[in-house]
Amino acid sequence: MADITVQHLAKVVGTSAEKLVEQLKDAGVKGKTITSTLSEDDKVKLLTYLRESHGKAKKDISAPKKMTLKRKTTVTELKQAKGRGASSVSIEVRKKKTLGRSAEEIATGLSSDELEEAKRAAQAHQDLVQEQGAAREKEQERASKKQEALDKIEAEKQAKLAEEKAILEAEQAKEAAKKAAAEAEEAAKRAELEAKQKPEPQPEPEPKSEPVEEPKIKIASPEIMARVKAEADAKKAKELGRKTDKKKAGSKFGGGILHVDKKPRRNKKKGGGKTRDIRLESDGKHGFEVPTKSIVYSVEIPESIIVSDLAQRMNVKAGEVIKTLMGLGTMATINQPLDQETAVIVVEEMGHKVVLRSDEDIQAELLADVIEKDGKEEPRGPVVTIMGHVDHGKTSLLDYIRESRVAAGESGGITQHIGAYRVKQGDSMVTFIDTPGHAAFTAMRARGAQITDLVILVVAADDGVMPQTKEAVEHARAAGVPMIVAVNKMDKEGAQPDRVRNELSQLEVTPEDWGGDTQFVNISALKGDGVDELLEAIALQAELLELSAPVDVAATGVVIESRLDKGRGPVATILVQKGTLNMGDYLVAGEAHGRVKAMFDEHAKAVKSATPAVPVEVLGLSSATEAGVEVYAAPSERKAREIAEFRQNKSKQARQAKQQAAKLEQAFSQMEDGDSATLNVLLKTDVHGSLEALKSSLTNLSTDEVKVSIVAAGVGGINESDVNLAAASDALIIGFNTRADASARRMIENRGVSVRYYSIIYDVIDDVRDALSGLLAPDIKEQIVGIANVRDIFKSPKLGAIAGCMVTEGYVKRDLPIRVLRDNVVIYEGQLESLRRFKDDVQEVKSGMECGIGVKNYNDVQDGDQIEVFERIEVKRKL
Ligand SMILES: Nc1nc2c(ncn2[C@@H]2O[C@H](COP(=O)(O)OP(=O)(O)OP(=O)(O)O)[C@@H](O)[C@H]2O)c(=O)[nH]1
């Protein structure tokens, strides 16, 4: 750099020229003025001085506290081109940047980082203090709000009490007013009577009503006064701190809902509603807003009710009911069904009245419009069910009757299986229920459907009375249905009809010719002998029963069989019991409803109507139903739907409750016995009758150790959803007279589900019984396989005591358990540790050979002891 004047340098470093002269002087560069030039040497001296003096800055406060540099950003050079020795002037722009220590740093003696840190800490502390302050404030605010709320509740309570008191007083006043009015009226009457009795001429007779009117006005005043007082009391109570919050007041339990009287609304849609307008009767001018009594509803509670439904009946929100339930220790959701007992507690807790309704009552009410009671009774034919022991000939008899009578009597003779058919006998028709067996009969009876007028008890003459014969007698007797005994298989050589009569007499079924009241007919279902006599006996019995039913009323009947037909939808065979079933009738059958779209008789002939004791196949129901459910012709579709839906809800709720109970039961049983084995079964059958029978037969196979659990059961083919369910629940699918469809078959293969098809009930039962037997834990039996006599004892340093033995019976095997016997008494039971012949380890030593036996953990074997070798074998058990 070229030499520079003091003035110029001062400008460059940003100080005054005079100060620089001073500093130069201090630096030892003397004799310099503002205009003097500075040599390199001078500059170095000045710099050294400045550095030194800055180094002492801490001690010398007057010394510069910081060094400020200016960042050079622009350099502009002005050139002076005039004359000789043209010179140039450089202009530099610098930004200030402080690198030195700030006054704070100096004051505190801390570095900038430390200072920054300290500042942050201080800030954080300050924030914390502020936060704590805010929290304290909030806490105080909350406490004061809580206190306020408590005060408010207290005030509300007071207000309510005052209101109730006022109401009571008002009522008392009203009562008094009434009494006074009555007395006044009485007095007026008396006066009138007296006046009549003493007819004194009066110039202007006063109107008769006047004496009655007057006390009315008089007594109106105390009433008004009472109400005014009530109002004043209520207001006073309000002033105590109550800000009217009608909703809250209403939600308090125990007190019911308070509905505060409102001024009449003009645009109220329906008059009344939840509030009532109370107006004074005196002159209509004074209308006080008086709180009325809490409204207590009479709440109808059926056997099961959903939470939201219950809330609706009490006119509160479902949340209120849930809250009450929580208060009673029960957690519930809005859609949860409550049993009647719980619902009663909730309703009482909320201050309402309980009206218990059984489902039967509700149904009876629903059905009241449907069932027509009156109608002219007309004679009808008998309905007959055939029962008896297995293989005694029930089906053969039904078949013979159908083939001989029906086919012969009808053109074409084609009959189809519709669960019931009719046969002409004399002037009347006999209806046979074509589902032989007790299961169907019991299932129908269990549902309260008494469809049979007569039972034909088939007993094979060569076999006599068997268990199911007895059962059939019991069923018929329990149902109060008369019996006719058909002694079958009379064509057989070993036929002993008298033995049958004898055995049945012991069951108090005594033949007529033996002095009893039961008709016995000897028949051969195979050849047809005696079948005509049997039919005559049926007609005779029917005549004695004088069967009749009204015809010109809406139909009622029973579903005998029901299934889902692929092409036609739900199909039900209905036996009409009363009235006439017509095409187009609305129907309700159990949980199904619909309209009669088509009707067919047992010859598949379309019919337009069916009268009592006539079975028909009906299309048009919404779903297949269970056998034995009652059928009603409803006056409208709405009615039919209403009844069906009520039943659907009921069974849904029952199912839910059952599921919950089952889950619990399962959990408990798993907890209790840990490993009771269960065979899961998914059951599909062709008709409801067999479904019922199989279900009960299979579940009856369960014992304490093994159980049959029917995971699902239904009528119809096996479909994909069945297979899915079976796979998910590890169930065996049983198809009774049904098959899996193509897609279900594919799925069965893919998912490895077991499926079995049957057409004989007893085969199903036998197979399931076998499967259950397989689940039974086997019996463990012990079998002695060999005995060795101890003849000597050796001590082995490695193995301890070794018994030198002779195998006298069977064999000794190394890994089998043993017992040590002394004088035929077991003194030890354990395992072999070593088995040797001479010095070799061996696996087995046979009878007649010597060996050395080491007994594990036992060294007390003695000469003369016996070592018994045995094995445990599993023996399969059968149900
Ligand atoms: N000889 C002779 N055999 C008969 C007679 N009735 C039935 N059977 C035979 O007895 C066997 C059983 O007859 P079913 O009609 O199937 O008996 P069931 O009572 O219906 O039997 P389940 O349906 O299994 O309860 C068949 O082989 C019939 O042929 C009869 O009157 N005489």
From TrEMBL:
Extent of Basic and acidic residues compositional bias: 134-151, 172-217
Chain ranges of the Tr-type G domain: 379-548
Keywords: Coiled coil, Cytoplasm, GTP-binding, Initiation factor, Nucleotide-binding, Protein biosynthesis
An example molecular function term from Gene Ontology annotations: translation initiation factor activity
Chief localization: cytoplasm
The keyword Coiled coil is annotated on this UniProt entry: yes
Residues where GTP binds: 388-395, 434-438, 488-491
InterPro entries, A to Z: DNA-bd_dom_put_sf, EF-G-like_DII, IF2_assoc_dom_bac, IF2_II, IF2_N, P-loop_NTPase, Small_GTP-bd, T_Tr_GTP-bd_dom
UniProt KW Nucleotide-binding keyword: yes
HAMAP family in the record: IF_2_B
The family this protein is said to belong to: Belongs to the TRAFAC class translation factor GTPase superfamily. Classic translation factor GTPase family. IF-2 subfamily.
Function, as annotated: One of the essential components for the initiation of protein synthesis. Protects formylmethionyl-tRNA from spontaneous hydrolysis and promotes its binding to the 30S ribosomal subunits. Also involved in the hydrolysis of GTP during the formation of the 70S ribosomal complex.
NCBIfam families according to UniProt: IF-2, small_GTP
Name the record gives this protein: Translation initiation factor IF-2
Species: Cycloclasticus zancles 78-ME
Species classification: Bacteria, Pseudomonadati, Pseudomonadota, Gammaproteobacteria, Thiotrichales
Gene this protein is translated from: infB
